[in-house]
Amino acid sequence: RCKVCSCRRGGERSGSCEGLAVVQYFSVASRGCVDCPPPWRPASLAAAAVIALGLLCAAIALLRSSWEPRHKAARRVLRAGRSLAALLKRAGTGAKLKIFVALYQCLAAIPSVYALSVPETLVGGFIDSVMSALTAAARVMDLAVPSACYGSKLDQLIGAAVAPWGVIGLAAVAWTIRNAAVAHAKGQLRGTGASVFLVSALRRVLPLVLYATFLLLPAVSALIFSSFLCDAFVYDDATGETRSFLQADYSLECSTPAHQRLKNWAFGLSPLWPVGVPVLYLVLLLAHQRAIRAGRTTKWVASTRFLWADYRPEASLWEVLEVLRKLTLTCFVLLIDERLEEARALVALLVSILFLSLQMATQPFRRSEDNWLATMAYLALVVVYLTVLLLKMCEQDAEVCED
């Protein structure tokens, strides 16, 4: 079995599959075709990820509980952990992490979204090396299992878009069963409707939904948008006939049944990510707007703390604007024709300037240091996108940059 090795920068298509017993992918680090890892690796990584997630959830639940172990040493460790968690909470660590993660997500998308390639004559290729490092860092899983080894582009799309919701669904089912078992043990199961357990489970897994969508939304949405983007090439110089291939995978020709299936799935999955997530954030915040502004904490309001706790009550909707900003910088600009790459960079620059102005004018965060940190992050993006725009202009006229 052989996969055509294709990449927009430096990759060459395999001329023949003879003698190749494994799937290959294009490695940014080695700038060439590399064999995919054995099939057992993704399975072991998935199992390790599930175990790690379970242990993390168990640790968080333990720190929040009032349970005390009998062993003196274990009791000291647990109390130290609770003290550390309280200290981090008082320091507002969550808001600062969100700012850094959002900045990283925008920076990591630059090499692929804006198709940036820097002339070697410019800064000795240093900027190009930085962009390559960002691309590699944006795909942590590629260090072990490159995305090109997951199967076809359709397989990758379905896996990336559906798997997180599948895990969340399993968590909701597990919590529903747990609530039913507890009610049965207390003799309260009879007369309690299934909807009560289901609503309680949804409320419990809502924080997990918010954390997962915050981390995965830009990457998954970019994958969905890339399903619609094709590059046209001249196939016959005599007749001027052209053929189009998917930008993300030149082995897939556009306007074929396979590409149509990919687009159909992309349309169907859009409500789960680039459309559905901002709407979900907005609905949750609007539904509890009065309680948030009044400072009343209900069970549902507590479940949505991730969206509003770091902001002033008057700016509790800021997270919706923030997610739209990230989507614009990492996904929506892909709708601009690739032949107008300067326009993509210009839109990103204007959006960054707009949000920098809004941040300075509204100061949405509760803590002054968080407002300062967010301002610096927006300013950094303004500088970066201005640099990207200048580099795109250099690509059009290299002599200008050399001068």
- Quickly give the structural class: mainly alpha
Report the count of strand segments: 5
**Main sheet: strands, sense, barrel:** 3 strands, antiparallel
- Helical proportion? 55-70%
Please compute the radius of gyration using only Cα atoms: 24 Å
Question: How far is the N terminus from the C terminus?
Answer: 50 Å
Total of DSSP H or I helical runs spanning 4+ residues: 16
Give me a quick take on this structure.
This protein has 403 residues and is mainly alpha-helical.
What does this molecule look like?
By secondary structure, the protein is mainly alpha-helical. The chain has 16 helices and five strands. It has helices spanning 40-64, 72-90, 93-108, 110-113, 126-138, 153-185, 194-226, 257-269, 276-287, 289-294, 299-303, 305-308, 318-330, 341-362, 368-396, 398-402, and strands spanning 24-27, 32-35, 230-236, 241-246, 249-253. Strands 3-4-5 form a three-stranded antiparallel beta sheet, with no helix packed on it. A two-stranded antiparallel sheet has the order 1-2.
Write the topology of this structure.
Layout: E1 24-27, E2 32-35, H1 40-64, H2 72-90, H3 93-108, H4 110-113, H5 126-138, H6 153-185, H7 194-226, E3 230-236, E4 241-246, E5 249-253, H8 257-269, H9 276-287, H10 289-294, H11 299-303, H12 305-308, H13 318-330, H14 341-362, H15 368-396, H16 398-402
Antiparallel strand pairs: 1-2, 3-4, 4-5
Helix pairs in contact: 3-5, 3-15, 6-7, 6-8, 7-13, 9-13, 14-15
